[in-house]
Amino acid sequence: MTPVTSLRPGITFEEHGDIFEVLTYNNMHLRKTSSVVQLKVRSLKKGSTTEKSFGSNGEVNPVKIDKKELQYLYKDNDDCYFMDPQTYEQITVPTDDLLGSEYLKEGENVTISFYKNQALSMVLPPKVKLKVADTNPGAKGNSVSSVYKDATLENGLTTKVPLFINIGDVIIVDTRDNSYTSRA
Predict the structure, then answer these.
(1) Are residues 13 and 34 part of one domain?
(2) Domain interval for residue 131
(3) Which H/E stretch holds residue 39?
(4) Which of 1, 52, 112, 145 has the fewest CB atoms within 10 Å, measured from its CB?
(5) pTM for this structure?
(6) Overall number of domains in the chain
(7) Spatial distance between the Cα atoms of 56 and 184, rounded to a whole number of angstroms
(8) What are 69-78's pLDDT values in tens digits?
(9) Residue 83: pLDDT band by 50, 70, 90 thresholds?
(10) DSSP symbol at 143
(11) SS (H, E, C) 93-130
């Protein structure tokens, strides 16, 4: 067990069956009582961010997370397939374990965090280039204000794009909120 006063950003710990990564750490000293440690943490299993408070004498169970740089090969209905570039070993990861797997492109390198050989999370680039597979043609003259239309991308996701974007255009999409950023 590790005391909560020794936690710092980047350290991972387990609590109630979930694994958390510390994002921010704040040790607040109160007047006549003991100090309180406030943490902003991200669940590596769910991807959600929460705030937690502990007494200064609290303890958590630290965990060792293995991060591997892998090359994405392909995806079927249930699994994503990766290759370790050093050992050429093929690794299968269930699609449900990877948030953001819809942004992967064949041959792309990604970093995946593992705990006890189970994939927890994947580090995606903040922006990716994707091709527009389907969208309605934009009507001329509707450009007085910022008007958006729906577009289906090559990975099957739908996002809002400006009227001047056509089928076959390559656009840059923000992976955090699936929003159009700019034309590539």
Answers:
(1) yes
(2) 127-183
(3) strand 36-43
(4) 145
(5) 0.69
(6) 3
(7) 50
(8) 999 898 888 8
(9) very high
(10) -
(11) EEHHHCCCHHHCCCCCEEEEEEECCEEEEEECCCEEEE
